[in-house]
Amino acid sequence: MTNSFARSNGVTVGNQDVALLKSMTVGRGPISDIAVDGDTIVVAHFGDDSIAVLNAETLTVDGGVFAGQPTTVALAGDRAVVAVSSASYDAIAVIDTVSGDVVKEYPLSFNVTALATSADGKRIYAGRAGEDGVDVSVIDVAAERVGTIYVAKGADATIDALRLDATGRRLYVAVTDARSSRLITVDVETSRVRRSVEIGAPIRGLELGMDSTAYVLTSDIADGGVLYFVDLVDNKITGMSAVAQTPTQLALSEGGARAYVVDYDRVAVVDTDDRTVVGEVSVGARPSAIALGGGRLYVADYDGGVTVYAVAAPTPMLYSPFVGAPALVEPALRELQPAV
């Protein structure tokens, strides 16, 4: 088993709410995704065909397993759910993070591009892109059954992100095709699409807030990286803010006061109340993925390193509904062209 080791990269923090704690290199090449739950971190090393399990406190390697080319990771308790791909097959692997064993594998057709799990880990949702459109495979772990929710047609469509709400009844699916992108609401109990809201640019990240707000991160050449605020009750965009140049991933703090955006060479810190970038974090390497847990921010990078920060929870603004929000300079809404 490869051990992690401390590194001396130039880590800088440009925000008073973020404090550097530790930085380690796992030593298995670039990290494609990271997830944290309690005292366990799981990182996916795509080039090394491996999953590494780290101690969240010390960042030392506690275990791992070789399992195809892992692309996306989710954690629920002592089970890691990993989308793996190879030239011959695609599958969802369930890994025991204590023993390091692959306890179950579910072969799937087509490439899995996004994952979500129920809070108890009994259901796994895998977003796939097929020949004629996109769908979500629903894996019932206890019953060992696999169902399908058909989401949208289009040979060029992809599912960029999946998020399950706190009730476990609504699944939010971020879909992008050649013309536009949209956030789709799926009723999990009936497996039916209920509604959608047009976003525009390709989606890079999706998170759900506690106040029925969805945070949708997009990126394109014209506007760069934009964070959209979507009211899930009224199903409409209520605001937007330029937050990065070429973002690739989004994470939301537990209370929803801060959003963290992976940009090309930094992590931008966004105040979701003011809708402005209030700081940035550099890890001395290109960040690839982030995760939040236990008041800490974990940043993985393309050099195979993991850096952990303590993140302070901002003091809630009193009577915030009665305080006028500052004027925002917002990118123009995209005007979609009709299909040819």
Describe this structure in words.
The structure is a single chain. The protein is an all-beta fold. 0% of the residues lie in helices and 57% in strands. The chain contains no helices and 30 strands. The protein has strands at residues 5-6, 12-13, 18-25, 33-37, 40-45, 50-55, 61-66, 69-76, 79-85, 90-96, 102-108, 111-117, 123-129, 133-140, 145-153, 158-164, 170-176, 181-187, 192-198, 203-208, 213-220, 224-231, 236-244, 249-252, 258-262, 267-271, 276-282, 287-293, 296-301, 305-311. Strands 1-3-30-29-28 form a 5-stranded antiparallel sheet, with no helix packed on it. It has a 5-stranded antiparallel sheet with strand order 2-27-26-25-24, with no helix packed on it. Strands 4-5-6-7 form a 4-stranded antiparallel sheet, with no helix packed on it. Strand 25 and strand 26 form a beta hairpin. The protein starts with a strand and ends in a 29-residue tail after the last strand. The model is unreliable at 317-340 (pLDDT under 50).
